[in-house]
Amino acid sequence: MSLRELITHSRGLPASGDGPVFAEPWQAEAFAMAVALHDRGLFTWEEWAATLSGKLKHPGALDDASDYYSCWLEALESLIASKNVADSHDIDQLAGAWQRAAHATPHGQPIRLENDPDRS
Questions:
Q1: How far from 94 is each of 1, 2, 61, CA to CA, in Å?
Q2: Is 16 helix (H, G, I), strand (E, B) or coil?
Q3: d(CA 109, CA 117)
Q4: Among candidates 51, 25, 23, which has minimal Cα distance to 38?
Q5: Distance (Å, rounded) from C-alpha 28 to C-alpha 31?
Q6: Please, are residues 7 and 25 in contact by the beta-carbon 8 Å criterion?
Q7: Where are the extended beta strands (E) located within the chain?
Q8: 2 with 35: CB under 8 angstroms?
Q9: Which of 92, 88, 66, 65 lies closest to 78, judged by CA?
Q10: Are 88 and 45 in contact, with CB atoms under 8 Å apart?
């Protein structure tokens, strides 16, 4: 199964013998983003591992690793900023636009960025 199929699979989250591979769909999407950005040459796996490791070890990281994928997103944001793809302001603006679009989208309909009522 491709990563795209994994994210859009309509029957739920993929599972292994030990249970779901991801606890939430957004975790699968974060995983897919990291793979896609690596495949496009934005960073090496060594850069990824060092950045993610740093986020997992930062003060405030949870000992039980329940914030693992939150650290994953922080690592992605950090690499995107360090490679001058987008800064934190741009990322925050886009995240806000997606939130507004989600709130403006009728239940059961796909969330599209053009649904953001503040989008000009």
A1: 29, 26, 25
A2: strand
A3: 16
A4: 51
A5: 5
A6: yes
A7: 15-16, 19-20
A8: no
A9: 88
A10: no
Q: Are 53 and 96 in contact (CB under 8 A)?
A: no
Match 């922080």 to its residue by tokens: 74
Measure the CA–CA gap between 117 and 32, rounded to whole angstroms.
28
CA distance 109 to 115: 11
Angle, helices 68-82 vs 25-39, to 10°: value is 30
pLDDT in tens, the chain (120 residues): 444 444 444 345 555 566 667 888 888 888 999 999 999 999 999 999 999 999 988 887 777 767 888 899 999 999 999 999 988 889 889 889 989 999 999 999 998 999 999 986
> What pLDDT does 81 receive?
92
pTM: 0.68
Contact assessment for residue 29 and residue 7, using Cβ atoms and an 8 Å cutoff: yes
In this structure, what token pair is assigned to residue 57?
């070890």
